[in-house]
Amino acid sequence: MLNLNRWKATTALFLTFGMNLGAVAPLVTPLITAAPAAAQSAGFRDVPNGYWAEDFIGALVNRGVIAGFPDGTFRPNAPVTRAQFSAMLKGAFNKAKVRNTINFVDVPSTYWATPAIDNAYETGFLSGYPGSIFRPEQNIPREQVLVSLSNGLNYTSTQPVNQVLDYYNDSSNISNFARPPIAAATENDMVVNYPILQTLNPNRNATRAEVAAFIYQALVSQNAAPPIASAYVVSPTPIATEFRIPAGSSIPVTYEYDKILLMQEETVPVTLTVPTNITTPDGQLLIPTGTKVAGDLKPATGGTQFVAKELIFANGERQAFQATSQVITEMETIRQGSAALNILKNAAIGSAAAAAISGVTGDRTIAASEVLIGTGVGALTSLIQRFIGARSVDLIAVEPNTDLNLTLGNDLVVGIR
Length: 417
Prior knowledge:
This protein is an alpha+beta fold. It contains eleven helices and 18 strands.
């Protein structure tokens, strides 16, 4: 692999939140290197060793935020009501009041969770429904848990909301009211998705295990708990999705023929190939092997020069590309009596050069596949007449694999692949 050695100190690195996996191979990775928290499973018989939420549950049990049932179970897959969630919030967070409580018509003063519900409302974690209704026995969906935690902790997204949420393969199912808070929760590493990291299931009722994971990650986001190593924590880190290759950088290319012959005054289209991966200094792929470089060999002072027009990637994507080769001045003389077959061995020729070779050598059998149709030189058959009887002709001889290494004329911004 080629690692460009000529990156300038001012190379610009564009950071975007890598949630759109259609452009770039997918960019959010699970947090798996954090130091594990000291957590125990608390011995629940339905939370086996290795259970995906075992450490989250154990950590919150140790903190007194949640508890199991008298029969020794935790019931990790059971739903959580709004009242139960209020009680968990009260046990997890010690947050100042931001508003005065109200009397919910469906929460009697004697109800077991009234103090927790009042606290959840006063601290901004939960609100009621129109008509001073709280619905304490209603199961709470996953998106509402994340909205509650984001709002209660005053988190807002620093990146475009839709860009953040595009990471989730079911982002279209997120309710409009929940989109900004869930984007903020995602940025703050509060989302835990099991078993598929990119599937949020926003409208499914949250389970006790999932709520434990969400609450614990909210504590981590507040530096109130140590991180737990888990492959299911959505932990997006801003990463480079574009890189600027500075002007003056060298781009190697190859060509299918060993030689290109053309008249000095003609312009011919040529498509070159990038022979090796071009990467950032830390190994991220920018221009893959096999990418095509389309351009023209054009007249230049004393010779010819390749002028690139665009990159053509394997997936069909095209990108404007400003780069040039050195000026090639090497000449090759074709004389009467020369064998065209030897001249053209593994060579490509411009149409004007083909006419000259045919006229000088008398060989009219030049294969069409070897002719690069030039611009502004007229039809091949009429050009032949121009050179019939000529004793010799001088052609520019380009050796692509040594003559056509390209130098960027402007900075090139390419996506990391």
